[in-house]
Amino acid sequence: MENQRLRVVAWNCAGGFHRKVTALTAIGADIAILSEVPNNCAALVKGDASGAWIGTNPDYGLAVVGMNGWQIERIDPIIEERLFLPVRAVRGSEERHLVGVCVKKDENYVAPTLGAMSKLSSFISKNAASTNW
Question: Is the pLDDT of residue 1 over 90?
Fold first, then answer.
């Protein structure tokens, strides 16, 4: 499995994840960035799924879920801006750094997004030159 393309999907599930989990697994994604999902969403995915979740409401948060052998670890830095989730995804000797993001489009989303991305720049760029997506 090493050095295969990584299939990442992003989905705003808008609640009701328990009814949508079958569709997610049918897509065949390796990593899913999921908005508006419960804090137990990784446990609802069949197989060896692992995940990280953030949010203030246990029924609606942001998750990054790894499947097909990808293990997800939430890592520092913890970002103060809401709904930015930096994670390390590991499968065997492969490692990727990802940031799950859920922003609401209004007049106030640009500054927090730029601030969070600035704080995460070294995390995002780590190993970027050697990554073959």
Answer: no
Phi, psi for 57 (deg, rounded to 5): -115, 120
- Closest residue by Cα to residue 69 from 92, 46, 41, 86: 92
Q: Tell me the one-letter amino acid at 89.
A: A
Q: Is the dihedral of CA 67, 119, 82, 14 positive or negative?
A: negative
Domain that holds residue 69: 8-130
Q: How many CB atoms lie within 10 A of CB 7?
A: 14
Does 71 map to a domain? yes
Domains held by the chain: number: 1
Q: From CA 37, how far away is CA 45, in angstroms rounded?
A: 12
Give the pLDDT confidence score for residue 119 in this predicted structure. Answer: 87
Cα–Cα separations (whole angstroms), residue 57 to 36, 62, 129: 10, 10, 37
| CATH number for position 50 | 3.60.10.10
Q: For residues 69 and 75, is the Cβ–Cβ distance under 8 A?
A: no
Task: List, for residues 31-86, the tens digit of each pLDDT value.
Answer: 999 999 999 999 999 888 999 999 999 999 999 999 999 999 998 777 777 789 99
Residue 57 lies in a domain: yes
